UniProtKB/TrEMBL annotation:
Keywords: ATP-binding, Flavoprotein, FMN, Kinase, Metal-binding, Nucleotide-binding, Transferase, Zinc. It holds the Pfam family Flavokinase. GO terms for biological process: FMN biosynthetic process; riboflavin biosynthetic process. GO terms for molecular function: ATP binding; metal ion binding; riboflavin kinase activity. One of its GO terms (cellular component) is mitochondrion. Catalyzes the phosphorylation of riboflavin (vitamin B2) to form flavin-mononucleotide (FMN), hence rate-limiting enzyme in the synthesis of FAD. Essential for TNF-induced reactive oxygen species (ROS) production. Through its interaction with both TNFRSF1A and CYBA, physically and functionally couples TNFRSF1A to NADPH oxidase. TNF-activation of RFK may enhance the incorporation of FAD in NADPH oxidase, a critical step for the assembly and activation of NADPH oxidase. The keyword Cytoplasm does not apply. InterPro entries: Riboflavin_kinase (IPR023468), Riboflavin_kinase_bac/euk (IPR015865), Riboflavin_kinase_dom_sf (IPR023465). It catalyses: riboflavin + ATP = FMN + ADP + H(+). This is Riboflavin kinase. Its cofactor is Zn(2+).
Amino acid sequence: MSRLFRAGSSLLQPCVEVGARTRGGWGASRQPSFSSRGPGDQGLNSSRRLLLRVPSRGCLRSVAMKNLPYFCRGEVVRGFGRGSKELGIRTANFSEEVVDSFPSDISTGIYYGWGCVGTGDVHKVVLSIGWNPYYKNVKKSVETHVIHPFKEDFYGEVLSIIIVGYIRPEQNFDSLDALIAAIQHDIDEAKNLLDLPEHQKFKDDNFFHRANVNSMTNGH
């Protein structure tokens, strides 16, 4: 079992913006913004004060992309059973061991990339890394939707993925319909982005054709 890691940026590094709006994205709850006044700004009104806000989508994307591409391989295990039953969208879950092997500086959120089951064909994928606030998960999960119609489940098979891009942060939703609509939008966006030449090249990466497909690998 091999694990490969590379140090990267963290969301703990501040993103300071003035008057910026944040956008949520499969879950994080809203967080308050804070105003900061230095000793020389006593006469400034609130519209000119420096605001420290939750990082914008652009800032989050920039941080997340620094850790990509990211290579991951592991066994598909049974998850919560919500993907096909409640959402109508099948997802493949990695084991806790694989999830715990992800470096802590990989931001939670929605990503896209390429994946294959066993030694099969390589397909587009979209995946969620995080706690899925709508379902109030207590354990972090990595759930991958392979954009391909499979006739049967593939529990126990080895799923290999290359994460190449970031779509948005996690977001809580007011209803199941809103969650489903967001996931469908994520899928459509992933399909389009993966057609770009800089992402297409990873479809033929040697990672998908290595002999040791039964070993777990996390790394860059």
